[in-house]
Design a protein that fits this description.
By secondary structure, the chain is an alpha+beta fold. The chain has nine helices and 23 strands. A four-stranded antiparallel beta sheet has the order 3-4-5-6, with no helix packed on it. α8 (377-395) runs antiparallel to α9 (401-415). The model is unreliable at 355-379 and 396-422 (pLDDT under 50).
């Protein structure tokens, strides 16, 4: 009773309200606010918070190598570009939910650009680089192992799959544990030079040689299976299997039709059917019909994402980024010199909570938390209150009763804040 008389205007904010505010903050603010207290750090590093953060509506983002000056990307109202400036990012990679897996000879690196966490694992004795005689124009990887990377939808763990058919060596890496385990051999071989795609907890490999198949691997049960329903046989070796907005898709160039069409087939997982969703004419717009026909014939195209407005974004092996409007059949080149990696989402999940990575992050991939180690606890609280006030004013109307209540509580916390965390 005495405390109520001393602080009649004291208001407390529930943990649910605090989480609702924090989950909507910019990424840099979240990384800073982890240093406020152990409770906030634990909350922001939880899987639940990371999943909620990814579900908050944001502008479509793409991950690219280098910087804006190098990419010559002038901007677009429907997308944002996130640049990764490190040497490892120039190598072919696999991505899932904003986390990047970079297979290298003898090593597999896993990077979370959002947090700066960087891990490197030895890939085993049979993981080496192909020689120049095994390379072909449609190669996406130059290693002798068929690689896969994705997230177990049940446990939330990220896993790496490696299949070396020449040595009958099949293994899986649980990034959370950091150890390789043996796998039961797959029912047949797939091409090691093609990228795989992870869609809703399963990895898919497209094999166009020997037999036309799509091999799937469930990351939770860790079992292989065949995709029984297949789209029509593809026209070229340049066909690519991708994750297009959480749907399995295959892109291929059809040279049989007039105009050199980019065909994109998308699978309906519930009905187990395939539908050609896009057929984009490239002749005279992307591929000239005279002169450099042989050079353009070897160009491969990869779908990226579909915007809220319905525009399709895709890129090619000549470092060009395109935007296509299916309603108007308008196709434009957004950049003629940009190395796009994949769609990007801000992911706050910790890759390896059991230990601190021994390998230092590559240049340009530093963790955003390191610069705050010398900031006093009181200054952090001032920074928190300032950012939260801005967020509250944006989320709620200034005249709303909860706005003044939360603001008053933040001021009380600032006035009574200790000089160091508990």
């Amino acid at each position: 009773m005495g405390e109520d008389e001393e602080n009649p205007n004291q208001i407390y904010i529930t943990n649910d309200v605090v989480e609702e505010i924090l989950v909507r903050l910019p990424l840099k603010s979240i990384l800073r606010f982890k240093t406020v207290s152990r409770e906030w750090r634990s909350l922001m590093e939880s899987r639940r918070f990371a999943d909620r953060r990814m579900s908050v509506p944001k502008n479509r983002k793409f991950l690219a190598v280098g910087n804006q000056a190098q990419s010559r990307f002038q901007g677009d109202e429907e997308i944002e570009m996130v640049y990764l400036e490190c040497d490892e990012a120039t190598r072919p990679s696999l991505t899932c939910d904003g986390v990047v897996c970079i297979p290298e000879p003898n090593w597999v690196s896993v990077l979370n650009p959002s947090t700066g966490e960087f891990l490197r694992f030895c890939s085993g004795p049979f993981h080496y680089e192909n020689d120049m005689f095994t390379e072909v124009w449609w190669s996406e990887f130059n290693i002798n192992s068929a690689m896969g990377f994705g997230k177990d939808e049940i446990t939330g763990k990220y896993k790496v799959v490696s299949m070396v058919f020449d040595h009958n060596h099949y293994q899986i890496l649980d990034v959370d544990i950091g150890q390789w385990r043996k796998l039961v051999p797959p029912p047949y071989k797939v091409d090691t030079r093609r990228k795989s795609a992870c869609v809703k907890g399963s990895i898919y490999w497209l094999d166009l040689f020997g037999i036309y198949k799509i091999l799937a691997f469930d990351l939770h049960t860790e079992e292989f299976r065949d995709v029984q329903v297949l789209p029509p046989l593809f026209h070229s070796a340049a066909a690519r299997i991708v994750n297009l907005d959480d749907r399995l898709a295959i892109a291929d160039i059809c040279m049989m039709k007039p105009g050199w069409n980019l065909e994109i087939w998308i699978m309906d997982a519930q009905e187990e059917t395939w539908c050609m969703t896009y057929s984009i004419t490239l002749a005279h717009r992307v591929i000239p019909m005279h002169g450099r026909v042989i050079e353009e014939w070897s160009t491969m195209f990869t779908p990226l994402a579909v915007s809220k407005e319905g525009s399709l974004f895709f890129y090619d092996t000549k470092k060009r980024l395109f935007k296509y409007d299916p309603e108007t059949d308008f196709l434009c080149c957004l950049s003629s010199d940009i190395c796009v990696i994949s769609p990007f989402v801000e992911n706050l999940v910790r890759l390896h909570p059991g230990c601190v990575p021994k390998t230092r992050p590559p240049r340009g991939c530093r963790n955003g938390r390191s610069c705050l180690n010398q900031i006093s606890y009181l200054k952090r609280l001032v920074l928190v209150c300032f950012h939260l006030t801005l967020v509250i004013s944006n989320l709620l109307d200034e005249a709303h009763p909860i706005t003044s209540s939360i603001s008053a509580s933040l001021l009380f916390v600032l006035d009574t804040a200790p000089t160091k965390p508990n």
